[in-house]
């Protein structure tokens, strides 16, 4: 199959530079816009974490500056405030982009969460319950199998800078800044191949208005998304009556858990403590979310514009909330925090201790559609990140879900643009079906945790109990770490057929504890530590699934691998003859269980070395290496075939003799010749 | 104590950038050269790994572009060939500079070494011994406790690029390239404060000759060092009669261990296989060291210039060797390699498979002195890296020992320049005493391994046995990994007094298996994994010893920590009152054994939180965390105090009640007020 691949420099010059991701092959003809006619294959609006991730992924997949444009109204990256939390799955994805190191090393790792509640224990000397709070429990932050068993807090501006620095290795232009989207329409009559029409202007003075056309457009333009409004999509949900202040500062305190994430419920209100990274002065930042007492009536709205007070329908309670939110000062936030921390004291440490602060009203809203079709039903305009869902920062999700939206969509777009797919539009359909469900789940969780968190722990007077709160917190761990995300069935996810298949051993996975590592179509492939055959190197499975847009077929061979006519050898030969029919975007990983004897390359089918020389592993337990079969729920006597999508989510699991199933699945995703 | 600290930008702007190392305080007045008068505090000649490391460390320690200059004759960093191996200790040091990530992730990790020897096993079918080689053993590459239990091969040009990229965060000027040193002299009469006079010129055409003066000068100008010659220092040693070819290439082969480090001894000659990193084409590089058969007489020389044929005294055998070396071609190297690999086949894979090749004669030489004094006995000129020792590449040491020379010297120079030291010149004296010994040990090892490696495994005819070879290889593991380096006693290393002290429990360390982790003054502090009190984070001890020029006092408290009048609390209070008398370059790390009950900050001496809030750990075994006391050889009932030098080597170990010893040691290193 003829393919076109573009490299930016000669291999020799590249040898002193950090490695570059190999671009995807392109089956469509090279995109060469005509001079004077501003056209792109993809336009991205907004360069926060969601937009930057989208831009970076598309350029890594091989889209050139001619092909993709990303604009942003802001003149530069953030310098303070906003989102700060990276969850386990996001860390795994950043690692798959080789962008995790600085974050893991220099960010603030959170391994534990402490719960503080009103004191109930009597002092041994006085016989009285002392006023204030006491620690009621201390638990692990992450209670699922994750490659990095902690979450990390770090300045959003640093994340954006890390993404942008990497982007500039692949894109000469980078982000086009100070450029604002005025509106976007789908206009199929003017130019059916480039039906998306976007009007841009200079963000400073509204000058230099121009119209550009594209095949696809991605709105990553935040909660007040112009793309969403232009497309007539609605945010649905409600804002609650709780107002919170948030402040990033260096603290002087005797509170013992200031370096742990804490949920503090005190009689004087609730505070969430988020430890943050060390700053150049050598001090450590802390973020406090502080409940501002008082009640305003909850309201339901269709659009956050109304909440902003623009809509005529804005009712009294909304206005009250907005007024009260605007009345919040740094001093009032700190005063409420001080009251909640008693008997411990907190105060800003020294001059310039406060880095950033704001006040907000909790709201949870999600857009009804994440994609808009043209008249032919082709997905043309997408919204990602805050443009399609907003929620409270309590669960530390904002930046994570936003980047993961782009991570889900980018490879599907690249496959469409590069014409690699058998049915590009069906793949693009899964963006809405997969991510809309996740957004809804998260918002439901956020609503319950936020409302419980805003309530007092006061079981005696009808409030929630500490146990109730912690229960909700724990249940959500799969969701909040990102490791429990499971996509539904589609052309990209083939769920096990029936219960019967499972009981009849037609399906090779045993067990259902997916959060502990058992494989399940629609969930991400959990990491395992293996030992490589070629060099004895101990290696992480996920490092064989870098984010390069490739599908992976993982062959967990059975204990008959050394038998040339066994089912393992048969499967490997059959897979090898299949790969030739697809574009070169399918990579093979092979794992073997403990075998009857030591062996060398010549003792096993030659296809293993040909297709996976450096991706062939022993998968049984030894020093520093895991029992992969046990972790994944695969019987070593039977083995399994697992197809992993380019974003690391499992598309299909079959028995070793299910190579036809694998082929059919891939034929639904890829061109076949 | 008043200190002067310079920051290059405001803390706020720094928040989106990677963290910067905090500079050392400066007690001497700020260095401000007079205009028109080219003077520096330190001049570095050469910007290979040794010179670049020296420059980077000095700038990180706080020396500005006014204060330090680094010149190099080459116009840019390397693009191919030369050194490629990074040993365990070097990886630890690069990690302490936060520069290891790309190397660990993108380099080639070597976990195992295979030994291949002439076949001796009869074929079961034919009853004959087949011609060629067979694998005789497969062992771990690293057999000592190391944070990274493997070595890494990666292009030297990448190491230099990584160091230079980081350097440019601290130095605006960076390396002054295309600038050659003509000569250097010590001229105390002209300017006693800046007695080192160096003449520089344009490396391209010899134009722009200029003279600069400095307090200190470091020659990192390689095997043909102008600094060494100008100072009249001699390289002593010998070159052997063995000639080797080396080639970096992409191979097409059925040899099963091509991705492992291999020592191949065949009847047709010896080959060493060094797997290398993946290159941008997706292929993997391999380096082969190939013995070129034939014998020339060994010679002893005082200077490598003679070997170069410049000296009149160059004798016939030297000329023969040189002639033969010059006759080696790529084709002959490959032909010899092919013969040694039989029955396996090797050939270059495709066009442009060969990246680089050369031929060399093994030689081991070391300079008699590593430093030159002025008439007052003050160390003024130093040589580091290849300028003071050359050896064969077999042990993979070149780049490592060179960078470690600079790592040993740089902080001592910075202390001298910043006037932080009680006796700067005595500290500078230890550069020669510590590094000269290591160079001699390495050369002795290299000589034995090289000569054995060049010999045939042929015990029947008086050759060495496989067991003899592997024995030498194993014994050297402490040396070659860098983890077994032990410096002798000096003002910076206080060895345990006598055997009596040890048996009388006046010395707190039990055990002598230093390569497994037992502490010993003069050796580097081995890494351990701990759990931090403040946040429950699991953490590596070595990450609390970043390469920032600070001394660390590690207090391994005893099991009486919760007793306010116990020896642990007493030691902590006594240490805290001592720190105030020193410049702020002493940091405290505290570890506690399993205690009788859970505790909070208020249950232990307040000095722990004040001096080591984020460096206070539990040191007993639990999930993913080690028993630090057992690893280090410390009895939890007695505890210990350990002082670690800025380069990570242990300076002093005492009992918990030995705070006076600690103070005396530090008073020998630091200003005291």
Low-confidence stretches of chain A: 1-10, 296-314
Main beta sheet of chain A: 9 strands, mixed
Helix content of chain A: 25-40%
Q: Radius of gyration of chain A in whole Å, from Cα?
A: 26 Å
Largest interface: A-B, 56 and 56 residues
Work out the strand percent of chain A: 15-25%
Please tally the helical runs of chain A, counting DSSP H or I stretches of 4 or more residues: 18
Global mean pLDDT of chain A: 89
Q: What is the total tally of β strands of chain A? A: 28
Family (chains A, B): Belongs to the PheA/TfdB FAD monooxygenase family.
Domain Phenol hydroxylase-like C-terminal dimerisation (chains A, B): 485-671
Region (Disordered) (chains A, B): 299-325
Pfam families (chains A, B): FAD_binding_3 (PF01494), Phe_hydrox_dim (PF07976)
Structural features, described:
The structure is a homodimer of 673-residue chains. Chain A has 673 residues and is α+β, with helices and mostly antiparallel strands. Chain A folds into three domains: 31-80 and 156-233 and 368-454, FAD/NAD(P)-binding domain (3-Layer(bba) Sandwich); 104-146 and 237-363, D-Amino Acid Oxidase, subunit A, domain 2 (D-Amino Acid Oxidase, Chain A, domain 2, 2-Layer Sandwich); 499-669, Phenol hydroxylase, C-terminal dimerisation domain (Glutaredoxin, 3-Layer(aba) Sandwich). The first copy, chain A, has 18 helices and 28 strands. In chain A, strands 5, 6, 11, 13, 14, 15, 16, 18 and 21 form a nine-stranded mixed beta sheet that branches. In chain A, strands 1, 2, 8, 9, 10, 19 and 20 form a seven-stranded mixed beta sheet that branches. Chain A has a seven-stranded mixed beta sheet with strand order 23-22-26-25-24-27-28. In chain A, strand 22 and strand 23 form a beta hairpin. In chain A, helix 2 runs parallel beside helix 5, helix 2 (49-61) packs parallel to helix 10 and helix 10 runs antiparallel to helix 11 (424-454). The longest helix of chain A has 31 residues, at 424-454. Chains A and B meet through helix 1, helix 4 and helix 5 of A and helix 1, helix 4 and helix 5 of B. Chains A, B: Residues 40-321 form the FAD-binding domain. Chains A, B: Residues 485-671 form the Phenol hydroxylase-like C-terminal dimerisation domain. Chains A, B: Keywords: FAD, Flavoprotein, Oxidoreductase. Chains A, B: Residues 310-325 have a biased composition (Basic and acidic residues). Chains A, B: GO terms for molecular function: FAD binding; oxidoreductase activity, acting on paired donors, with incorporation or reduction of molecular oxygen, NAD(P)H as one donor, and incorporation of one atom of oxygen.
